[in-house]
Design goal:
The complex is a heterotrimer of chains A (about 260), B (about 800) and C (about 160). Chain A is of the alpha+beta class. Chain A is about 35% helix and about 25% strand. In chain A, strand 2, helix 2 and strand 3 form a beta-alpha-beta unit. In chain B, a hairpin with a 4-residue loop joins strand 25 and strand 26. The chains are: A alpha+beta (about 260), B alpha+beta (about 800), C alpha+beta (about 160).
Chain lengths: ~260, ~800, ~160
């Protein structure tokens, strides 16, 4: 790890100030990816701004029919939350399946989506659930937030403060784990929303998380696992890497989509 | 009686409290320097420029050395002097150390190496078996060939000829403690080295060579390793030499440990293999002749590749009698990490070759694979099928002071079985009618026991009924399919380099009766020290608590062999026994004289020394002997008898005996994803008369799981530039807790070794790894349930590979 | 590089150390507090050899900064035995021979203890998945699971 400076602000404003004052600062929001990346010398931020002590970023509450999850909430807290389990049980189960216990105790929802790892679970969940990402300056629909591999709509000096998830009783996430990392080789989140079915896929796309129109159309007209049989899932645009070919991932998308529908 | 007792590992109380000290835990002086290597970023070519200015000026950096800074680049090779510590300008693999940084902290050294600016003139690397074959890039001038009988005739006259190819990947050791070493300069230019190594003498030899010191100027100490598995037989040389070199140049202590990533990129792994086979069989699946062509990527340097490839050839038969056989071995040189020792040392690769053949024969002829295996087994030795009884069997005959068996116990074991005829020397098995069957390297197989063992395992685990139930279950399941397989292992015990089969020990008895024990073997978790301490305690008739286990130390026992080839207990147990017996005989003689009895009337048991009618506590006896001015310190020495081997001709008796076992695994696969699980595994394994059943069963369980990992999830991937892409636990998948068999039954085939080993036990380190083949074979069986075609499952059988095989089976 | 002064509790004792911002909690435990029970197996949070608890929650100390421990309560393997008496998990690991080279053992014990504190009666499946982040290369895990389940049973009886 290269030398760095450590800041522990107690407010969002102080966090922004610390980051703006840094040459090449990064928010530290659990660090389960960032610190590992820094150790491998693949990232070398001049400053780390630890946001987990900021009370405004923590906690889970209901706002009417909408679940509001503070950005610094850990995966374990989301998984265990009574509010999440009742308003959106699929999301609680998604969180419970991320990584291993140590990761779930440190990693946060804000950190995960800001990083937008192409194999992370939360991006698929929030995209399928039509969530809204709230920052210190604006609200961004999940559809507009995830822009590509490790790329989001976040501006420099912008910080995620919370995530708003419309309650959704019928949603589930099915993941085929890359066995070594426990990340998704393919993860599919399906949700039945007021506007029809939404299906988001992580782990597979060359450009990161994406929605699948064919699967959404099929499930919108017939919410059943068998509806997926007739959908063609192309390997075009899917990743081929040491953990699986594009064709294998295409196959897994259908299998996981069916399992998700069955579990929802 | 402390042997054959399931006592805990001697370090267990330290392990569970976090107090067991490994190299990186040894307190270091504040002046200690910390080292890191800068590594080549291409697989083959030459360095054209190397700008290390930024490295030198980085914070905390004390010294930076490139190959060109040294008059003579120290060699790290255990064999051919072809492994310079730092590149001499030529790059042989991506990850090769090119310069060395010494800094005031580990983090500072690691950070500094990233600041180097190196340019290269790249050449095309040879990365694959095909590329190396085409370029005739190999070690030795041509392939090695072992031959027995007329294979061509056997193949041409066989009813069926079955041929195919099996490719199997390598395996990263993933010892959880990475490579580590520390060197402490002494006041007269000598060096003390702490090393996480299976081979302290080799470290001593290489460090002495690097520093131009005689071997007596270097002392190497190894208390314990956090796992070795063969990966610390030669791969620790680089770190120890680097530390010694820096310590020598600076006069300061120096420590080096590889980060996990560096460990993956720098060190060698298990050899991957391609095996082409052609076998001729009759309608019953009995083999008349078999031809194997083994090809392996040895990587860039020789290391231990010749004996590894030899051992693969020596295990091409595994448990099966091949009337005619030809085994051809190509040792290919590639621009990758130098493949090295890994538990089984080539044996597993050879065994996978013929186990694959057994499954292929069964598929082709529509036979049960187990039946095909049993039909091709060697004949059991006389009495081998009845001398056993599983874990509940009575212990084998113990030996008393003079090494003869106590009549009572021997009688008990032999009653009704005639089995006691098998034990040793004058009671060797009678030759079989027409002579014993021979291996493809012309060694008589006289201690085979797998017919009886397999029969018992198949019965105990209900193989036939479960096989039928699985077929029925599969017929009704569209998505999930189960498979089952029972596979054996017969593994040759001894170093094939005959002179390595020797060991030494040093034992002191202090005047208070406490015992200090030292031997040349190293502790890597396998429980060697505990087993050997039980031997020492048994020789003196005292509690093992009285025996102090001490760090392996080249200053105490010289010229040792690596703790490898499963030989640790066999060799060091015997050496310690010899040392103890020397002291015991001196004590007996003194006390006998004192009490006016004969020395053989002095017995050591239950913490007491029985001299005639008198009982003396051992401590008091030791003190009396000391007062009588008799030495209570002795060395012990042992060399394995009855072995001789010509590796060029492929003839002789390379092994003292065979350790054997079998496993039956049941798996389930998901035909939509290829995902799979081990549902149940039953193992019956032959550890002779186990010195410590708890430790031996631990070895069996761990070896099995490691073998299953090798053939299923552990996939090493190099990209087209020669970069290893699976270089961390996030990309390279070793078995985790959730991967172990849901039901796991392990028992010992508790029969004394007919060969005269320490308390008639058998080596147990490596053989169980090959029990993991049952999982791979069961996966192939499950895949076969998906369709009529031969699924041609390769290894490792990752989920994606299983899914592809399902598609092939369906056609 | 300015160092950070950290005050934290380790195994119940108030401790202080000075660390660089980039030093992990594992580095601080091992290098500044001489607590070498937690090991670096991978350094990337994938092997669990460095497991400790922070405010009662299992974490990989190699993926927590030393600075993040400010004001927290850390528990390591060194604090598991109380007044010299081994914790039931420690005893059962010895009894069941659930260890070989021993380098994963501290992490696995810390992880298992943290589960049993939350869930004194876990199923075997829950235990397997809880320990999914703790790798062992020697034992094959069977004896580990047996030891943990046995310790859990004993602890339930005692409570």
């Amino acid at each position: 790890m290269y030398p760095t400076k450590y800041h522990k602000p107690d407010s969002v404003d102080a966090a922004i100030t610390a980051l703006s004052g840094a040459e090449d600062g990064k928010f530290l929001a659990g660090g389960q990816t960032l610190l590992a990346t820094m150790k491998q010398h693949l990232a070398a931020p001049s400053d780390l701004v630890d946001v987990r002590g900021i009370s405004d970023l923590s906690g889970i509450r209901m706002d009417g029919d909408t679940l509001v999850i503070g950005a610094a909430t850990t995966h374990a807290e989301v998984a265990a939350s009574a509010d999440v389990n009742s308003a959106c049980p699929g999301l609680a189960r998604l969180a419970a399946g991320i990584g291993d216990p140590a990761v779930r105790h440190m990693g946060t929802i804000g950190g995960s989506i800001a990083n937008n790892d192409p194999a992370a679970c939360y991006p698929a969940g929030l995209l399928a659930l039509n969530a809204t990402i709230v920052t210190n300056s604006r609200e961004i629909a999940a559809d507009d937030f995830f822009l590509g591999l490790f790329t989001t709509a976040l501006e420099e000096d912008e910080i995620i403060t919370s995530v708003r998830v419309p309650a959704c009783a019928k949603a589930a996430y099915a993941k085929f784990r890359q066995p070594a990392s426990l990340f998704a080789l393919v993860g599919v989140c399906v949700a039945q929303t007021a506007d029809g079915a939404r299906v988001a896929i992580t782990g597979a796309g060359e450009d990161g998380v994406f929605r699948h129109e064919g699967l959404e159309a099929a499930l919108s007209s017939d919410w059943s696992a068998s509806a997926i049989d007739g959908v063609e899932v192309s390997a075009d645009g899917l990743m081929s890497d040491i953990h699986g070919s594009a064709a294998y991932r295409a196959n897994l998308i259908k299998v996981m989509a069916k399992r998700a529908v069955a579990a929802a | 009686m402390s042997v054959r007792t399931p006592l805990p590992h001697d370090s267990a109380p330290l392990h569970v409290t976090g107090r067991a000290r490994y190299v990186d835990d040894i307190p270091t002086p504040a002046t200690c320097l910390h080292l890191a290597f800068g590594m080549a970023q291409i697989a083959h070519g030459r360095i054209t420029s190397m700008d290390l200015d930024a490295v030198r000026s980085a914070q905390g950096v004390v010294q930076v050395i490139a190959g060109s800074d040294l008059d003579e680049i120290p060699d790290c090779s255990p064999s051919a002097e072809d492994e310079p510590l730092l590149s001499d300008g030529t790059i042989h693999y991506l990850g090769q150390p090119v310069f060395l940084v010494a800094a005031t902290s580990h983090l500072a050294a690691r950070r500094a190496v990233t600041l180097a600016k190196i340019t290269y003139e790249e050449a095309t690397p040879l990365l694959t078996i095909d590329a190396a074959l085409e370029a005739n890039s190999r070690f030795e001038d041509g392939p090695r060939v072992y031959e027995k009988g007329d294979v061509d005739q056997a193949l041409s006259s066989a009813a069926h000829v079955i041929e195919g190819r099996i490719e199997m990947g390598g395996q990263e050791h993933f010892y959880l403690e990475g490579q580590a070493a520390m060197a402490m300069p002494q006041d007269n230019g000598d060096m003390i080295v702490h090393s996480s190594t299976q081979h302290p003498t080799e470290i001593q030899h290489k460090v002495a060579h690097a520093l131009h010191l005689p071997m007596n100027g270097v002392r190497v100490e190894t208390r314990r390793m956090g796992g070795g598995f063969g990966g610390k037989e030669s791969q620790g040389n680089h770190l120890a030499i680097a530390c010694a070199l820096i310590a020598h140049r600076t006069g300061l202590p120096a420590k080096m440990r590889y980060d996990r990533d560096d460990d993956f990129m720098i060190t060698g792994k298990r050899h991957d293999f391609r095996i082409d086979y052609r076998v001729g069989v009759n309608d019953e699946g009995r083999i008349a002749g078999a031809e194997f062509t083994q090809m392996t990527r040895c990587g860039w340097a020789l290391d231990l590749s010749l004996p590894v490839a030899d051992r693969a050839m020596l295990h091409a038969d595994n448990a099966y009698h091949l009337p005619a056989a030809r085994i051809t071995s190509h040792r290919l040189r590639t621009h990758t990490q130098s493949a090295t020792a890994f538990r089984g040392f080539g044996g597993p690769q050879g065994v996978v070759g013929i186990e694959r053949v057994m499954d292929h024969i069964a598929h082709a002829l529509g036979l049960d694979p187990l039946q095909v295996r049993q039909r091709n087994y060697y004949d059991d030795a006389f009495g081998a099928g009845v001398a056993q009884g599983g874990l509940s069997a009575p212990p084998g005959p113990p030996e008393d002071i003079s090494g003869t068996k106590k009549a009572g116990t021997a009688h008990k074991l032999s009653s009704g079985t005639g089995a006691s005829k098998r034990f040793g020397g004058a009671h060797s098995p009678e030759p079989m009618a027409g002579g014993a069957q021979t291996t493809p390297y012309h060694m008589e197989v006289t201690d085979f026991l797998l017919n009886g063992l397999t029969e018992k395992l198949a019965t105990d685990c209900d193989y036939a009924a479960r096989k039928a139930a699985i077929a029925e279950w599969n017929a009704g399941q569209p998505v999930l399919k189960k498979g089952i397989a029972l596979t054996p292992v017969k593994f040759g015990i001894s170093f094939t380099l005959t002179h390595l089969n020797q060991a030494g020990a040093l034992v002191h008895v202090y005047a208070d009766g406490s015992v200090h024990m030292n031997h040349g073997g190293t502790e890597m978790g396998q429980g060697l020290n505990q087993k050997v301490a039980q031997v020492a305690a048994d020789r003196f008739g005292i509690s093992p608590d009285m025996v102090k286990i001490t760090a392996t130390d080249t200053g105490k026992v010289p010229n040792t062999s690596a703790t490898a080839a499963s030989s640790g207990s066999d060799l060091n147990g015997m050496a310690v026994k010899a040392a103890c017996d020397t002291i015991r005989d001196r004590m007996a003689e003194y006390l006998a004289t004192e009490h006016q009895v004969k020395p053989h009337q002095v017995r050591f048991a239950d913490g007491m020394v029985h001299v005639g009618a008198e009982e003396i506590p051992f401590a008091e006896a030791a003190n009396r002997v000391y007062m009588g001015r008799v030495s209570l310190s002795a060395t012990g020495y042992y060399k394995t008898p009855d072995i001789e081997w010509d590796r060029i001709a492929g003839r002789g008796r390379p092994f003292f005996y065979f350790a054997q076992g079998a496993a039956c695994s049941e798996v389930v696969i998901d035909t939509l994803t290829g995902e799979n699980r081990i549902l149940r595994t039953d193992i019956l394994h032959d550890a002779g008369s186990s010195l410590n059943p708890a430790i031996d069963i631990g070895q069996i369980e761990g070896g099995f799981v490691q073998g299953a990992g090798w053939l299923t999830t552990e996939e090493l991937v190099w990209d087209e530039t020669g970069r290893l892409r699976t270089h961390a636990p996030s990309t390279y998948k070793i078995p985790a807790c959730s991967d172990r068999p849901r039901i796991f039954n392990v028992a010992l085939w508790d029969a004394p070794n007919p060969a005269e080993t320490i308390y008639r036990s058998k080596a147990v380190g490596e053989p169980p790894l090959m029990l993991g083949i049952s999982v791979w074979s069961a996966l192939a069986d499950a895949v076969s349930a998906c369709g009529p075609n031969y699924p041609d499952l390769q290894a490792p059988a990752t989920a994606e590979a299983v899914l592809a095989a399902v598609a092939r089976a369906r056609g | 590089m300015s160092k950070i002064h950290v005050t934290t509790k380790v195994n119940g004792d108030e401790v202080e150390y000075l660390c660089e911002p980039r030093e992990t909690l594992l580095d601080c435990l091992r290098d500044h507090l001489d607590l070498t029970g937690a090991k670096e197996g991978c350094g990337t949070g994938d092997c669990g050899a460095c497991s400790v608890t922070m405010d009662g929650r299992l974490v990989c100390s190699c993926l927590v900064l030393g600075a993040e421990a400010q004001g927290k309560e850390i528990a390591t393997i060194e604090g598991m035995a109380e007044d010299g008496a081994l914790h039931p998990l420690q005893r059962k690991f010895i009894e069941h021979a659930a260890l070989q080279c021993g380098i994963c053992t501290p992490g696995i014990l810390v992880a298992a203890k943290s589960l049993l504190e939350k869930n004194p009666d876990p199923t075997e499946t829950e235990m397997r998945y809880w320990l999914a982040g703790n790798l062992c290369r020697c034992t094959g895990y069977d004896k580990i699971i047996r030891a943990v389940m046995d310790a859990a049973a004993e602890m339930r009886e005692a409570s």
